[in-house]
Amino acid sequence: MPQRLLALIAGFALAAVPTTAVAAPSQLRDCGTQVKQSVGTGWCQGSGTFTIKVACDDGTTVTGSWIRISSGYGIRMLSCSNEALATSAAIVEAP
Fold first, then answer.
1. Domain presence at residue 1
2. Integer CA distances (angstroms), 21 to 13, 24, 60, in order
3. What range does the record give for the signal peptide (predicted)?
4. If pLDDT is split at 50, 70 and 90, which confidence band does 91 have?
5. pLDDT tens for residues 48-87?
6. Residue 47's domain spans which residues?
7. To the nearest 5 percent, what fractions of the chain are helix, strand and coil?
């Protein structure tokens, strides 16, 4: 009987655990970008997740991996390939 009671309690405890996490609203601030030669740079302060997209003069677009910051500062630099020049950079926040 005690084993059955423990199994029942454990089942209720597991049922109470959420199966998906809900992302907190982004609190990114003071974000900016810079383009110099073939490199695009993006940065943000605060808390949240972001990446950058860099457009290159050969028509390609380079997208970085996601950066997650928590009450801090994040920076990402990406280069265009094949000696192409960067024409613009944009911050993209995680959905």
1. no
2. 17, 9, 34
3. 1-23
4. very high
5. 999 999 999 999 999 999 999 999 999 999 999 988 999 9
6. 25-93
7. 15, 55, 30
